[in-house]
Amino acid sequence: MQAWQVHENGEPSEVMRLEGVGTPTHGDGQILLKVRAANINFPDALMCRGQYQVRPPLPFTPGVEICGETEDGRRVLATPALPHGGFAEYAVADAAALLPAPDALDDAEAAALHIGYQTGWFGLHRRARLEAGETLLVHAAAGGVGSAAVQLGKAAGARVIGVVGGAAKAAVARELGCDVVVDRNAEDVVAAVKEATGGRGADVVYDPVGGAAYAQSAKVVAFEGRIVVVGFASGTIPSPALNHALVKNYSILGLHWGLYNTKNPKLVQHCHERLTELAAQGAVKPLVSERVPLGGAAAAVQRVADGVTTGRVTVVPGLTEGGAA
User: Fold this and answer.
1) Exposed, middle or buried by CB within 10 Å (0-12, 13-18, 19+), for 25?
2) Burial class of 263 by CB neighbour count within 10 A (0 to 12, 13 to 18, 19+)
3) 66 partner at 20 to 30 Å CA-CA among 73, 78, 103, 175?
């Protein structure tokens, strides 16, 4: 079979190589899946660079999120068991963690409903306890993780402010349903958010960026607000001033979604059921901006790493270079 292999750490476009390899063998409790679509996540780039908390042995195949097909033809969502990731024709996953793919979504959309939307749901509902009528601020609102949080926030009845970088991403954020869009390249984020909220600030801030975005979050979070720390796409891990959190009465909440798979997997199942309902209602629908064939995976992972994409970029092994399935 064809699979992308990483033999050394570095930039995705330089270290990912498409090779002919043997079909992976699954261990006890695992299952072999035909990959129908593999969604690209920022951690895929970090793993190529050797900068992610999970460091699979070299060589490995990236791809942490797929819509796959079982031997009996069922469509399922899975997080492949590394080193046999999803940027390949076949992947291996834990059988107990498989989730049924929602009928309302195609393969690429279904693949993108998993990690980003689970993270958003746990972050907004489990950690921040977002309530209808509250104001939600989402950093990188046009990106894969941010776009999921925007849709989930709107579905929960929140007023959503999206922060983006550039006019093209601002247009995407508006299409996603943001009530207010702030272009950090053209506006002062802190001033714009304070103006949009009458000086009160945001009740919940969803931050997958870190760095300067976190500093802005601390300045615009409301009294008794909650900042949900989801990731550090900026490459800079902030050092929160706890005296500032004390003086302003706000909470800093960490979210590592993967822990729920071992700490409380029933919650993951419950979340998926809720996401499936929202997808069936049309309340959420992953924004898949690009569907690329297997041969285009390395370049696509690099684009995600460089922060130039919107929504989700998904690798579809059955797609030809001309775009036909």
Assistant:
1) exposed
2) exposed
3) 175
Residue 37 to residue 40: CA distance in whole angstroms: 10
- Mean of pLDDT values over 20-49: 95
| 23 contacts: CB under 8 Å, gap ≥ 6 | 1, 32, 90
> What's the pLDDT score for residue 322?
53
Cα atoms in the 13 Å half-sphere on the side-chain side of 82: 19
Q: Provide CB contacts within 8 A for 112, sequence distance 6+.
A: 39, 65, 144, 286, 288, 312, 314
Give me the residues paired with residue 221 across strands. Answer: 202
pTM for this entry = 0.92
Token representation of residue 117: 């939307």
Structure-token pair, residue 220:
């615009």
User: 3-state DSSP call for residue 31?
Assistant: strand
Model confidence over 293-320: pLDDT tens digits? 999 999 999 999 998 999 999 999 988 7
User: From CA 182, how far away is CA 188, in angstroms rounded?
Assistant: 8
Q: Which two tokens stand for residue 72?
A: 């009996």
Q: How far apart are the C-alpha atoms of 83 and 253, rounded to whole Å?
A: 31
Residues in the chain: 325
Q: Are strands 288-292 and 312-315 parallel, antiparallel or unpaired?
A: parallel
Measured between alpha carbons, how far is 207 from 168 in angstroms, rounded to an integer? Answer: 20
pLDDT confidence of residue 43: 92
Helices (H), the chain: 12-15, 42-49, 107-111, 115-121, 144-155, 167-176, 189-196, 212-220, 242-248, 260-263, 265-281, 297-306
Q: What proportion of the chain, given as a percentage, has pLDDT over 70?
A: 98
Asked if 210 contacts 233 with a C-beta cutoff of 8 angstroms, the reply is yes
* 3-class secondary-structure state, position 301: helix
